[in-house]
Write a structure and sequence with these properties.
By secondary structure, this protein is an alpha/beta fold. 43% of the residues lie in helices and 14% in strands. The structure holds 3-methylbut-3-enyl trihydrogen diphosphate (2 copies) and magnesium ion (MG).
């Protein structure tokens, strides 16, 4: 029997590892980029769904620091899609009162992509609904490393005292500064690993893995994840 979301707690922040675009394409005898293209359509739909569900933050893993190791053709196709969807996203964000924010090291992208990211963030900054966070050229270890480098520099410059560093200080140097930690992580396509995603932020996040391939992800799948989250007994190291 289908359960409704009535009376359920909607997580404030959902993190997503959208995996399985390649497998989706392979199943259909299509080239991998066809899976990525369909995956972009699903991202767009999911942003609209999340905005309507009242989720405050949705963070999706779009491209990892390790994904540069893929073939030149695949990386090139992903960059082209990224260019195209940045423009579409501006429309989707405006229509749904969505604020867009990118995390990760954008400096490795081509100039026009860097400018596009800047424009998207600037033009959606005043929106008050869902905050849609896209992790691109993102790696948890890279994020922590960049944060440590900046902290060390601030200590050296006398702007930060080493003995005054707390967990809050570290969090404030991360790309996700001011974004609350995710309550729920959803990974599609069945892999049981973090793949270098939000290593600091996921410390106490509930993990939900579905076999559904990312391009097939839909409202029903999202609702199933939220229902599973509601059936969890959340602990933070203490007893219940
Ligand atoms: C996720 O799908 C999208 C990106 C990592 C860019 P994959 O491309 O990893 O798809 P699979 O895992 O090969 O099926
Ligand atoms: C994780 O997916 C990264 C993104 C979704 C962007 P991958 O397909 O790259 O991860 P692995 O290779 O399965 O660990
Ligand atoms: Mg994958």
């Amino acid at each position: 029997m289908e359960q409704s979301l009535e009376g359920m707690v909607i997580p404030r922040h959902i993190a997503l590892i959208l995996d399985g675009n390649g497998r989706w394409a392979k199943k259909r005898g299509l080239p991998r980029p066809a899976g990525h293209k369909e995956g972009c359509v699903t991202v767009e739909k999911t942003v609209e769904l999340a905005a309507r569900m009242g989720i405050e933050y949705l963070t999706v893993y779009g491209f990892s620091t390790e994904n540069w190791k893929r073939s030149t053709e695949e990386v090139g196709a992903l960059m082209q899609l990224f260019r195209y969807y940045m423009v579409r996203l501006l429309k989707v964000a405006s229509a749904n009162n969505v604020r867009v924010r990118m995390i990760g090291d954008r400096s490795r992208f081509d100039r026009d992509i860097i400018d596009g990211i800047g424009r998207l963030e600037k033009e959606t900054r005043e929106n008050t609904g869902l905050t849609f966070v896209i992790a691109v050229n993102y790696g948890g270890r890279d994020e922590i490393t960049r944060a440590m480098r900046k902290m060390a520099q601030d200590v050296k410059d006398g702007q930060l005292k080493a003995e005054a560093i707390t967990e809050e200080t570290v969090a404030s140097y991360l790309d996700t500064a001011e974004i609350p930690d995710p309550e729920l992580l959803i990974r599609t396509s069945g892999e049981l690993r973090l793949s270098n995603y939000l290593l600091w932020q996921l410390a106490y996040t509930e993990i939900y893995v579905t076999d559904c391939l990312w391009p097939d992800f839909n409202r029903e799948e999202l609702e199933k994840a939220v229902i599973a989250y509601n059936n969890r007994e959340r602990r933070f190291g203490g007893t219940s």
